[in-house]
Amino acid sequence: MISAFDQLGFDESNTAILSGIGCTARSSGYLKFDSINAIHGRSLPIAEGLKKVQPDKNVVVFSGDGDLTGIGGNHLLHSARRNSNITVIMNNNLTFGLTGGQLSPMAPRGTVSPTSPKGSSIEPVNIQGLVASYNPHFFSRGSVVYPDKLSQTIKQALEWPHFSFVEVVSVCPTNYYRRLGFKSVAEVYQYLQKNLKFVGETEKLEPGQLGIVKKELKQKEEDDKK
Q1: How confident is the prediction for the chain on average, in pLDDT?
Q2: 47 pLDDT above the threshold of 80
Q3: What is the 3 state secondary structure string of the chain?
Q4: Whether 158 contacts 164, CB under 8 Å
Q5: Which residues are within 8 A (CB) of 53 and not within 5 positions of it... i.e. 6 or more apart?
Q6: Is the separation of the CB atoms in 164 and 85 below 8 Å?
Q7: What is the pLDDT of residues 117-159, one digit of tens each?
Q8: Residue 183, C-beta contacts closer than 8 angstroms, at least 6 positions apart
Q9: 0.90 exceeded by the pTM?
Q10: Cβ–Cβ under 8 Å, residues 108 and 121
Q11: Which of 9, 74, 167, 220 is most buried, most CB within 10 Å of its CB?
Q12: Cβ atoms of residues 41 and 70 within 8 Å
């Protein structure tokens, strides 16, 4: 994210970072920007309010999957619907890492956690389907195991003139992958590098694919005419 900021000239004079609660959400406090660490799940409405008051400000929300799709899922739904010109970067480590590893809405079926000791029997949130159900839209998925490609993906999201969303496939070796039997962070990275494939821009990202799904306003108008 910082690399993308540098490329675009985003700095403390023109950019604000917002977050909710959780491991990822703490990051806003480590950056030299105006920042707001909101209550759990409430970063998005505060980000929208900031953007309305200061429309020239670059407004970025950087938080985790538990905060954004669990506690804050309702706000995410309506921020995408309202198409606010903000960028949301979701660090998806598949767990509520800060509070003990409870089941995240993004965790796949079968996930064992303190709140699903026999394995989850429900499907994860279809975050791509949610974001892409509105027009125009920008949804992308990258991973920490491919940092250069991830930086470029974030850069494109920041340049998008409407609501944009970046899912970052990340790791929680303590509260998620350890329960799956992984012994080290290096082992987790090797696993993800083997099972994730970058496909670029596409109409839909399948599980295990990294890339960008977007639809511009002009394209929407052409579709409406058809």
Answers
A1: 90
A2: yes
A3: CHHHHHHHCCCCCCEEEEECCCCHHHHHHHCCCEEEECCCCCHHHHHHHHHHHCCCCEEEEEEEHHHHHHHCHHHHHHHHHHCCCCEEEEEECCEECCCCCEECCCCCCCCCECCECCCCCCCCCCHHHHHHCCCCEEEEEEECCCHHHHHHHHHHHHHCCCCEEEEEECCCCCCCHHHHCCCCHHHHHHHHHHHCEEEEECCCCCCCEEEEEEECHHHHHHHHHC
A4: yes
A5: none
A6: no
A7: 898 899 999 999 999 998 889 999 999 999 999 999 999 999 9
A8: none
A9: yes
A10: no
A11: 167
A12: yes
- Please check whether residue 83 is in contact with residue 35, taking contact to mean a CB–CB distance below 8 angstroms: no
One-letter amino acid for residue 106 of the chain: M
Q: Distances from the Cα of 161 to the Cαs of 55, 83, 164, 210, in angstroms?
A: 12, 10, 8, 22
Give the HSE-up count for residue 221: Cα atoms under 13 Å, Cβ half-sphere.
3
Answer whether 93's CB lies under 8 Å from 27's CB: no
Helix axes 43-53, 73-82, angle to 10 degrees: 30
Which two structure tokens, joined as six digits, stand for 42? Answer: 């409430």
Residues 6+ apart with CB under 8 A from 225: none
209, 199 contact by CB (below 8 A) = yes
Take residue 149 and report the two structure tokens written for it.
């490609």
How does pLDDT run across 159-180, given as a tens digit for each residue? Answer: 999 999 999 999 888 888 888 8
